[in-house]
Amino acid sequence: MTFEPEEYERRVRELRERMVQRELDAVIITDPENLMYLTDHQTTGYSFFQALIVPLEADAVMITRALEESNVIARTWVEHSRPYPDTGDAILELVSTLRDLRLSDSRVGYERNSYYFPAYQQDRFHDAFGEGLVDCFGIVEEGRIRKSPAEIDVMQLAAYAGEAGMATGLQAAVAGATENEVAAAITAAMFRSGGEFPAVLPYVASGPRSMIGHSTWEGRMIRPGEHVYLEVGGCYRRYHTALMRTAVNGALSDSMYSAQELMKHTLAELRSLMKPGVTVAEVDRLARSMIESNDVGAQLVTRAGYSIGIAFPPSWDEGYILSLMDGDDRPLQEGMTLHVLPWMWGVDGNKTVGISDTVRITEDGCKSFFTLPEDFTVHESSARSFPTPAAVPHGF
User: Fold this and answer.
1) CATH code for 5-144?
2) Where in this chain does the record put each Creatinase N-terminal domain (predicted)?
C-alpha cells in the first residue's frame, strides 16, 4: 500500500466523524479518487461500477466487478468484498449488500455527483432501495483538500518525475522535431524517473496550435521561429503535480520576453501572498490583475489555478474541490496543494505561452515542488534537418 495503515485509519475515522455531523448511518463511495484516498484501491477498470460501503460502526464492504476483486485483495486494507460477474447486476448487488448490513431503513449517503455513478444507475438504485438516500457529495473531499505530510512526500516523487519529463521535453522541442517526438521524450523521461501514467498525458502544442484549448500532439512538425507550449503532470501512486513551460526556436522577441517576465513576476508575487488565511479570491484577483496588465495582447482566460492531488483520467486536477476563482472567500489552509497558472493566451494575437507552479501551503507561507528554471528555453541555432514542404504530410 502507498501509506502506513495509520494513515488510512485516520482518513476513515475522520470520514465517520463527518458522517455523525451529517446524521448518516452509512455512506456509499463511488468516486475513483475517493476510493483511492480511503483504501488505496485503484484500477484502470473504474468505468465499471464499484462502490465502498462505509457503515458508521460495522466493517466497510467493497462492491466490485469480479475481475477487479483482486485489486481489493492485493492493494487495500478492505477485508470484505462482494464481487459481481460481468453477467450480473451491480446495482442489485449494492442493494442486497445494504440489506445484509441491515441498512434498509437507515439514512444512507451517496455521491450524487460522482462521474461513475450515472443517472440511470442512480434511478435504479432509488427504485430498488427506497427512502433514506441522501446526497453526501463532498464528504470525502473535505478530508482530501488538505494533504498530510505523507501525501506531500508522495507528491514530491510525482514532481521529480514531472520535472524530469519537462526538462527533457524542452530540450526536444526544436525545429524539425515533431510534436509526437517531443511527447515521447517527455513520457519516457517521466517513466524512467519512477513516474506512472498520469491522468492526462502531456500537452504539446507548437506554433499556431497553441491557441487551441487543451490541444496536444498531432504529429505536426515544429518550424524554425516557432514556440512550443508544454504542460506536464507528473504522477506517482495516482498523486499528481503539474507545471507549464515554453520553448522558443529562434531569438526571443520583445513581446515573448515581456510575457516571460510578467509570468515569472506574477508567480513570485503569488508565492509571496499565498499562506494560511489568505482567501482563494485574493489569489485569483492578484494573478488576474497582473496578467491582464500585459501590453502584448494576452489574456488569462481561465481560473488562476486549482487544487491538485489524487487523480484518474480524464483530468489531473481537483478543481471540483477548490478552484482559484473570484467570489470564493474560503481561506487557504496548511497542507493544501495548488497548481497555480498565471499563463497567457494570445501573445501577439497568435501564441499561448505558460509558466506555472505546483505549491503546497505551509505553516507560514507556501513552497514549490519544483526546481526547474522558469525562463523560456531558447533554441537560437539548434534545429534538426527540415524537409521541404512536399515531404511534410498534408495539413500539417
Assistant:
1) 3.40.350.10
2) 11-145
